[in-house]
Amino acid sequence: MTADSYDDIPYDSTPFAETHPDHLCVLGRLFGLDAPEPATARILELGCATGGNIIPLAFHLPGARITGIELSAGQVAMAQKLIGTLGLSNIEVRQGDIMELGAELGKFDYIIAHGVYSWVPDVVREKMLALCRELLSDNGIAYISYNTLPGWRMRGMLRDMLLYHARDARTPRARLDKAYELFDLMDGATKGLDALSAKYLRSEIAAVRKAHPSYIYHEYMEEINQPFLFSQFAADAGKHGLQYLCDVELGTAFPSTLGQAAEQALEFAGDVLELEQYMDFVRNRNFRRSLLCRSDRTITRDLALEQFENFAFSALLTPPKKVELSRPREQKFTSADNHDYDVGHPLTKAALLHLAAVHPDAVPFAELVGAAQQIAAANGGRQYAEQTDHLFGELFSLFAHQAIRISPRPQHFDKEICERPRLHALAQAQAALNLGHLATVRHTTVQLDAFAAHLARLLDGARTVEELVQEMVAAMEREEVVVEGDGKKADVKKMAATVEANVRRLLGVFVRQGLLT
Ligand SMILES: C[S@@+](CC[C@H](N)C(=O)[O-])C[C@H]1O[C@@H](n2cnc3c(N)ncnc32)[C@H](O)[C@@H]1O
């Protein structure tokens, strides 16, 4: 990894929900750690690229103080420009080398290093762990992601091919062109081959083609990409006075998620670290996002579930067409990325309906229980309304599988679309930058197609919905916005009737993601 390559091909830096200090705090508290309140925390990101993860944090957590360190001057300049546009005074992104950092930075409650650890030289890796120990506040939490063995060996097969194929290309751009050339070459060459390796390669290429080019370059074509056994990572952290807390995907900690056979087979594991390692073997896991805290903290592996009553919940799952609330029956609720989650109890289904209706609010537990009881009772499920243990159990499972989000504090957002709709300042700035996505209040992204991107740029509070529709139609007629359908250009005349519906639908999406003011 060189700073130059990141100057040349900046990372497509976006918010990662799993790095949000709210998520880290909730996990820490479930493990018995008195994790600091994120709204007023000190937060550090190492290798923050263009600030796509921490600038939204700073925008939405005005009481937090955030520092980003990044080697590539080009990316730092982009981050600083956006921070300047937004006038944020609670965040600083500095150009600097992780190797040069020390105690002068002060203490941090949350330290995030996403996409850095496996991609830097050994000495920088060591330094990252040393810094986490040195800079973490007493109950602070560090997040480190890295590629894992043995699973990454399979992905490494494509990396080996790409490095060879691009061996004579001199610039990062030329190397990236070579990557797409190799994808075509290998797709063609293995066509019709039935071998397991050929099938795997084709599926890997198909998946990688969907990724952002900057990801392909920095993941597959950089000089350094060092995967580790989880046990190695945990031992290295231990040498630096840090202990493994958990994974950001809490569900992966439970062997039951691998099925009964795996659960029984892994019963021999002596401790959590050994169990985690064998689960990686069973899952063929190639990537991890581990949380660490200081070794001198006492944590519990019997999760402190009573903490749930202090948390606030949010979720946006699409319910089945007809939700059955009059009796327990498993039904599928679907996430934005098309994951299906089985939910059985009427009270849980009612809770999910409530959370979807008020999204992106984070609803306190007691309020959520009350709302769910009312919805269930009003829809034939009165006899289930008191079975809050079931709700509790299913909510925990949904959280462990990332289907719902938990925050340490409630949050409420206005849902009204005002006469002249306006995106909040961060979304307006991101729309102007034409990134192709906007950061949501839940620290995810809304992807924008050409239509949505153009509309987003018009949402500055100067236009009524009617005027927005007129401008969108005009932009389509001028072919400034080209909407493709079935590979053919859409007929604007025919489309005109649907433009208004589309504008209104998108305003609904934006308001549900907390993007309008
Ligand atoms: C793969 S990118 C990940 C960026 C961002 N954290 C994300 O996930 O979107 C790794 C980043 O770490 C930065 N980096 C690498 N070595 C560094 C060092 N020694 N000091 C500071 N930043 C470094 C790179 O310039 C790059 O922007």
In the CATH hierarchy, the third-tier topology of the largest domain is known as Rossmann fold
Average residue pLDDT: 94
Uncertain segments are none
Taking all Cα atoms into account, the compactness measure Rg is 24 Å
- CATH class type of the largest domain: Alpha Beta
Number of domains: 4
- Associated small molecules: S-adenosylmethionine
User: In order across it, which strands form the biggest sheet?
Assistant: 3-2-1-4-5-7-6
Distinct helical segment count: 19
Structural class: alpha/beta
Q: Major sheet: size, sense and barrel closure? A: 7 strands, mixed
Shape: globular
Which percent band covers the strand fraction?
A: 5-15%
Q: Quick one: how many beta strands?
A: 16
CATH homologous superfamily of the largest domain, by name?
Vaccinia Virus protein VP39
Helix content: 40-55%
Record the SSE blueprint.
Layout lengths: L2 H6 L12 H10 L11 E5 L7 H7 L4 E6 L2 H14 L4 E5 L12 E6 L8 H14 E12 L3 H15 L6 H18 L6 H14 L3 H9 L8 H10 L2 E6 L12 H6 L6 H12 L3 E8 L17 E3 L16 E4 L5 E4 L2 H13 L4 E2 H14 L9 H13 L4 E3 L17 H9 L3 E3 L5 E3 L2 H9 L6 H13 L6 E2 L2 E2 L2 H21 L5
Parallel strand pairs: 1-2, 1-4, 2-3, 4-5
Antiparallel strand pairs: 5-7, 6-7, 8-11, 8-12, 9-10, 13-14, 15-16
Helix pairs in contact: 7-8, 7-9, 13-14, 16-17, 18-19
S-adenosylmethionine (SAM) binds next to helix 1 and strand 2.
